[in-house]
Design goal:
The structure holds 2 protein chains of 2 kinds.
Chain A: H1 17-36, H2 42-54, H3 60-93, H4 99-127, H5 137-146
Chain B: H1 2-22, H2 26-54, E1 56-57, H3 61-76, E2 86-91, E3 97-100, E4 104-108, H4 109-114, H5 118-133, H6 136-145, H7 147-152, H8 156-165, H9 170-186, H10 192-206, H11 212-215, H12 220-234, H13 247-264
Parallel strand pairs in B: 2-4
Antiparallel strand pairs in B: 1-2, 3-4
Helix pairs in contact in B: 2-8, 3-5, 5-9, 5-10, 9-12, 10-12
The chains are: A mainly alpha, B alpha+beta.
The structure holds zinc ion (ZN).
Chain lengths: 147, 265
């Protein structure tokens, strides 16, 4: 989405059909896992980790996108897990539902919606071989890949 | 450093979003509406039980079906759902009618006895339905007792005394009277019946009998004034009006009610 000096970039011409498919699938995988794992957010993280490990020996383009998908899943995982345990705490302790809780749930809903939309968009773009860089997550991915 | 900066920016952005979301009273938006509906339902049940303790409910199938034949068309012609409404006839010499929370309406045998025509009963019922439809019962209970006390479930005795006394504010009574004019007109019953009921009460008031329904309401002359104004504004057509019940049927209903009183006493 943005072009930054020193960042890892790919031009669509260099990306093969197979690579496009794998990279695109890594996002679809995380999306699918997100829906399956919504009540217990550990599932989507696990699924993405498994997919990441499976593609470790793949080309740079595929690995780069698997990593970006993994990192984004990892960050949303924290937010969703907090919501999950907050809900459990309310149910178990018969606590009252507070404004803070509802505000947090709406925040989570927003974050997940953004995550889902960006994931679908990125999946479609990578399928075309277009390299999509997310805010912050792409930089972390660059850092991890350089090592 | 670039990553840390972006990380803090993202976290800060999310924190700002959260703080903005915190400004809204979500619990009041989602819960209280639901709470009030449940509260009304619960109060309706409790108060109805207490009213049943205070008065004997007449359970004569003929009488009740005749009353329903006056009551139900009034609701249906105004597109009001009959699902929640219930009409009870209770044994009492008091001339009284009142609405309980959750759309339960009580009329006394004294009222039936007092009224000369089914149209007049329709008028009283239309007025009580207006109190229910405009949510006057719950509104007044909340202003009089406070939501917290009502939710706590204590003081139901006072609540019952309040609803049987039906001391609504003048503004709410006016609203109910004007609404009743529209209800009666839609049900093709002459809305002037309300004024006539008031005339009857007016005469009756000079005697010492217990006419609660009128003593808890604004002065009849005031009411008649705004009622006739409202009827004028409606541009009603008196030709289309019919009787809520033929005078013979009304008379036999009254006989039946008084005979059921005699039987039990
Ligand atoms: Zn009234």
């Amino acid at each position: 989405m943005e072009h930054i000096e020193g960042a890892i970039n790919f031009s669509p011409r260099e990306v093969t059909e197979d690579e496009r498919e794998y990279a695109s699938n890594s996002y679809l995988m995380s999306l699918f896992a997100l829906f399956v794992g919504l009540p217990l957010p550990i599932f989507n993280l696990l699924a993405t980790v498994i997919f990441y490990l499976g593609n470790r020996k793949s080309t740079k383009f595929v690995r780069w996108h698997c990593t970006q998908a993994l990192i984004s899943q990892f960050s949303i995982f924290f937010f969703n897990t907090a919501a999950f345990w907050w809900t459990i705490a309310i149910i178990l302790n018969h606590k009252e539902i507070t404004d803070a809780y509802i505000a947090y749930l709406i925040l989570i809903l927003l974050l997940n919606a953004i995550e889902i939309i960006s994931t679908i968009y990125t999946s479609v773009q990578t399928r075309k071989g277009i390299h999509v860089r997310w805010f912050l997550f792409s930089d972390i991915t660059d850092n991890l890949m350089k090592k | 450093m670039k990553i840390l900066g972006k990380f803090l920016l993202l976290l800060g952005g999310i924190a700002v979003c959260y703080l903005l979301l915190l400004q809204v009273n979500w619990t009041t938006i989602f819960q209280v509406k639901e709470n009030r509906d449940r509260l009304e339902e619960r109060l309706g049940k409790v108060v109805l039980e207490q009213v049943k303790d205070m008065y004997d409910v007449i359970e004569d199938e003929d009488v009740n079906s005749t009353l329903d034949s006056i009551f139900i068309p009034l609701l249906k012609d105004n597109y009001i759902s009959t699902k929640n409404y219930d009409l009870f006839l209770v044994k009492s010499v008091e001339v009284n009618a009142f609405a309980l929370p959750d759309d339960k309406i009580i009329v006394t045998t004294g009222l039936i006895n007092f009224l000369d025509s089914a149209d007049y009963l329709s008028a009283v019922l239309a007025h009580e339905v207006a109190h229910c439809e405009k949510n006057h019962v719950m509104k007044s209970l909340i202003t009089n007792f406070g939501l917290d006390l009502l939710l706590s479930g204590s003081g139901t005795g006072e609540v019952t005394n309040f609803v049987t006394g039906q001391a609504f504010s003048r503004k709410l009574e006016k609203e109910a009277d004007e609404m009743a004019v529209e209800y009666l007109d839609a049900a093709r019953i002459n809305p002037t019946s309300i004024s006539k009921v008031m005339d009857m009460f007016d005469v009756y008031l000079s005697s010492d009998d217990d006419v609660s329904w009128i003593s808890s309401h604004p002065v009849p002359s005031d009411r008649k004034k705004y009622l006739s104004q409202k009827i004028d504004r409606l541009k009603t057509n008196p030709k289309m009006y019919k009787e809520a019940l033929s005078s013979e049927s009304w008379k036999s209903l009254k006989d039946r009610v008084s005979s059921s009183l005699d039987n039990e006493s």
